[in-house]
Amino acid sequence: MTDFHIKYIDRGNERSLWLFSDSARDYELLESLPAVPSADAHMRWHPLLREWVCHAGARQGRTFLPDAADCPLCPASKGGKLTDMPATDYEIAIFTNRFSALSAEAGTSPELGIKTVPGIGFCDVVCYSADHNSSFATIGVDRISLLIAAIGHRWDELMQDDRIQYVLPFENRGREIGVTLDHPHGQIYALSHVPALIAREAESFATANPLDDIGAQINPDLILAQNECGLVMVPEWGRYPFETWVVPHRRMASPAEFNANERIQFAALIHDAVSRLDAVHGAPMPYTLGWHTAPRGMQDSFHFYCAFRPLRRSADKLKYLASVEQI
User: In angstroms, rounded to a whole number, what is the distance separating the alpha carbons of residues 305 and 253?
Assistant: First the structure.
């Protein structure tokens, strides 16, 4: 029994929709755009780094910075253009990405001079709000709590597929990052392999938990906020000037393990972190946000956390990882 409500709609054409709300509600649904075939998605093995690289040609044609009036993530309207969002209103929506980089039905991978495999997986879009001009910093703690519940629910569903080895919820925010849609949203990728960085983190957690009682280990001045669920901190080992982590006190594999009270507490921490980042330069901070969850088989040792990696180093300068910083 959950303290939130879910409505699932199978839209056909390899597209699904999940609508999350705090209380039971009805939805008016219209038609939506069909998925763009992604059966040619495949993975190529990098022989030096020993990791998989995804190739997905279908994404070349994805929607690019439309006007607000043509936003495909805003609520649908009768008589309007077909979009990705068939609901005329919603709180939190998750749906199959129309331009998926992966496919549950991926076909045969191409024969090259290196090892290739089909790009098996799932790609979801996560809409935070029906309001085109909102953001993590403005949707409020209750809505963030519902978002956490939605991500946790979808994480659980995706991990039930034995082909999936890792599920990564994330957000790219700001045109400086390369975002092609301004509407507040994130994504969820379910992968048939474990990314190299996550594999290294999992190895560290399997040996010892570097985040266990982290509040007592780091400089107290680097703890920005704290409550009974967790803390917001600036990691001393961060690679970006304003890098910020949100870490629950207790170890868990994913947001699916939060109870209702922990979820609202963690939501308050995320809201605090984003509000602080936006206040640094008095404008929305461009960032990447990774929800670092446990790979398959490592759920008992991994310590879930969220990492904000902001792209600005000053009000008018961007921070790029270049040359030696990429190694």
Answer: 9
What does 127-193 look like in DSSP terms, one character per residue?
E--S-TT--TTTS-HHHHHHHHHHHHHHHHHHHTSTT--EEEEEEEESTTTT-S--SSEEEEEEESS
**Look-up of token digits 């980042």:** 277
- Cα separation, 247 vs 306, in Å, equals 7
> What's the pLDDT tens digit per position in 224-236?
999 999 999 999 9
Given a cut of 90, is residue 242 above it in pLDDT?
A: yes
Q: Is 326 exposed, middle or buried (0-12, 13-18, 19+ CB in 10 A)?
A: exposed
Strand 312-314 relative to strand 116-118, pairing:
unpaired
Rg (the chain; Cα; Å): 20
Q: Where are the alpha helices (DSSP H) in the chain?
A: 141-159, 196-207, 260-280
List, in order, residues 6 or more apart from 299 with CB less than 8 Å away.
Answer: 253, 254
Report pLDDT digits (tens) over 267-296. Answer: 999 999 999 999 999 999 999 999 999 999
